[in-house]
Amino acid sequence: MRLLRDERVGVIAVLAGTAVAVGAMAPFHDEIGLLNVGLVLLLITLLIASTWGWRIGLLAAVVTNLSLNFFFVEPLHTFTVHEPAQIGALVVFLVVSVVGGSLLSRARAAATMARRREAETAVLLDLSRDLIGRADPADALATLCESAVRALRARGAGVLSPAPGGWSALASAGGDDARRALSRQEAVTAERVRASGSIGRLGRIDLPGRRPLRVIGPGRRAVEAAPGVVFVPLRIGDRPLGVLRIDGPFGETPFREHPDELLNAFAREAALGVQRVELAQEAAHAEALRQADEMKTALLTSVSHDLKTPLAGIKTAVSSLLDSSVSWSSEDVQSFLELIDSQADRLNRVISDILDLNRIESGVVRPVRRAVAARTLLDEAVERTRLATAGRAVSVSTPGALLVETDEALVLNALVNLIENAAKYSKPGGAIRLSAAPAPHGAEIAVDDEGPGIAPEEVPHIFDRFYRAASGGQRVKGSGLGLAIVKGFVSLVGGSVRVESSPEGTRFVITLAVADEAGAA
Questions:
Q1: Could you tell me where the beta strands, DSSP code E, fall in 204-325?
Q2: In this model, does residue 497 exceed pLDDT 90?
Q3: For residues 434-445, average pLDDT
Q4: Over the stretch 159-204, which tens digit does the pLDDT of each residue have?
Q5: Are the C-beta atoms of residues 396 and 435 closer than 8 Å to each other?
Q6: What are the extents of the domains in the chain?
Q7: 505 has which bridge partners?
Q8: CA-closest candidate to residue 173, choices 198, 152, 189, 191
Q9: pTM for the full model?
Q10: 136-279 and 283-362 share one fold
Q11: Helical H runs in 363-407?
Q12: H or E stretch including 502?
């Protein structure tokens, strides 16, 4: 039988200890007495059994028994025994040695197991404390990996789940090596472990020169590759979820010789974590479907009103103009044409808002940032909204040298929406003020109007899609997409937008990054 390294040391201890004891007592065996010699050799046997286990203890019992017979029982230096009493003494010595050694080795094994169980309990208790309050499943899995690395003193750990074309890491700990992709051989072993539900090892995972754990390689041959890796199956009932990977070698811990129980305990916690990840993903998918359904419903509601109303106006005006039974005056014809023009503009705005929101949410808009003068942005926005602000005083106030780093087209679109929004919701004939100024965290571009303001309960929803705030107690016609588009465009260029409102008026503030003059050049 092939002896392990620790057992080879035990054999040497048996031979050396017996030789030293025999060499020290043999010249004085008459003075010492056979009983005392037997007790000394029995003590050696018991010490060896308690240190190296029952197999080495049994060997020590046989060796010391033979040594007692050969060196101390008459006739000396033979295994022949003449006295029946001496035969009985040798038999009793052998039985006591074997039984005593067995009892001590069992006590030693029980004490070792108790220490290991105590250490396992402490590790799992610490893990439970670490996992309490971890609402994010991925964070909980990362914490579990860190605990496994600490407990086993391994190089790394990772929770892997099958994915199209390979394995994906849900969490890892232990440095960059723990996040590495699996080799082909590792991927095959991981798949076998996931399917079979039993722990698999690839390569050498113990410390060099120490007792190796079960090693499996290609074709189930022993492999001495270092460092090795352990794969532990993750299961909920009979359903395989993935594997827990531990990168060896393991350090000196109470679990190094028998880590399977602790590995399975980590795997049970990891399986629950993977299940939580799956449930979270399903919940997120369900929430996305719910939001999509809400958006579809809101869009249909908006389209049914905001598209149908201008179409109805256009249809009525055109039908009236085509009615040959009525002789319309030139003023009437002009009125119908103006109605058609205004309703067509309204229809165009609704369609443009829907398309802009779709571009933002689909991610097809790619901002191109450059240094732009704040004054240029505001002047251009005023020019584009002259028709919407007709009859109102519009003022612009900016430091001449203030430059912002942004996408000019996107921010200009946002400003146009804010100005048109101010013209629609503020009191008739009220002034609109545009300003830009440096701020502690960038540059602020503001659009102010005069009354009646936004109700406090509506402020948190003002940038929601399809939300239309009340003005003077009544809902203003519109798609409810303008401010959602403003927020989307500003966010795309790395800025932010906020609203401040009171009964005297409303102020929208866009915060953008400041560009220095060197960058502009």
A1: 229-236, 239-247
A2: yes
A3: 91
A4: 888 888 788 888 888 866 666 778 888 888 888 988 888 888 887 6
A5: yes
A6: 5-125, 136-279, 283-362, 370-520
A7: 502
A8: 152
A9: 0.46
A10: no
A11: 374-384
A12: strand 496-502
Q: Is 467 helix (H, G, I), strand (E, B) or coil?
A: coil
Considering only CA atoms, give the Rg of the chain. Answer: 43
Distance between CA atoms of 273 and 285, rounded to whole angstroms?
A: 18
- Quickly name the fold that domain 136-279 has: Beta-Lactamase (3.30.450)
Mean residue pLDDT of the chain comes to 78
Half-sphere exposure of 110 (CA within 13 A, CB side): 6
Mapping DSSP to helix (H, G, I), strand (E, B) and coil, where does residue 473 land? coil
CA distance 484 to 462: 8
Retrieve residue 307's tokens.
Answer: 């598209």
DSSP assignment letter at 256: S
CATH 3.40.1360.10: does it fit domain 283-362? no
Q: Residue 357 is which amino acid?
A: L
The CA dihedral of 271, 276, 278, 281, to the nearest 10 degrees, is -160
Closest CA to 127 of 322, 275, 272: 272
480-491 pLDDT, tens digit each: 677 887 888 888
In single-letter form, the type of residue at position 427 comes to: K
> In Å, how far from its chain's centre is CA 389?
51
Strands of 239-247's sheet in order across: 166-173, 156-163, 239-247, 229-236, 200-202
Residue pair 158/242 in contact (Cβ under 8 Å)? The answer is no
Which residues are 514's β-sheet partners?
A: 404
Q: Using CA atoms, how far apart are residues 423 and 417, in angstroms rounded to an integer?
A: 10
Distance from chain centroid for Cα 141: 7
Nearest 5°: CA angle at 132, between 129 and 138? 115
The angle, 0 to 180 degrees and rounded to 10, between the axes of the packed helices 54-72 and 5-25 is 20
Architecture of the structural domain at 370-520: 2-Layer Sandwich (3.30)
Token pair recorded at residue 391 = 């009859």
CA distance 259 to 205: 11
